[in-house]
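Class prep. Protein, please:
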Amino acid sequence: MRNLHETLRSEHHLKHFGRLQYGLFLKSIGLSLDGALAFWRAEFTKKMDPDKFDKQYAYHVRHSYGKEGKRANYTPYSCMKIIMSNTPTQGDHHGCPFRHWDRSHMTTMLQSHGLSSKDGQSVLEFVESSHYQLACQKYFEITHKLQSAPFSLEHPSQYFAESRRVRGGLDSMPKTEPGGMESGQGDASGVECEDESVAMDVTAEISVKDMEDFESF
């Protein structure tokens, strides 16, 4: 998600699956519909007219929050869903970096995030053996200075919540409301919707201002 966030901040745009993956994630960690509209509008209108955003993009934000179309409760993608579906192509930024980036790109990213060559190699060993979630968990342990994380990472929202706990943020994060669409019924993009919920308690709503510090996690 950090890659999607940084790309949005630098390019002020994401292609369809990037918007879908990141938008549902933001919803899952507590960003309200009004907050989401403000967040996406603020970025997109740095390169386009506000009227164009309202006509071409605002509907899809409202749709993902169940306020348009079938008014379904769309849930965010789990790690496995991200790894296994919608492989990114040229110009896309969605997907899982540990699964979809080549070694050179991954090595550059790890170095830019402050990992030593030794630590970077320990992450890459999991990548090369196709254990992408374990690679992500190893990255989490290194960047959060943990010997061993007392949990298994299964969802980007879980990563965000655990990161905030370790760094002294919110004690817990929102839980996706029950009743989300079942896989195969379709979602805001016309592709299958993830039917897994994030096992977190609702304690607070994330604001647009909170997103300014997203790079920290």
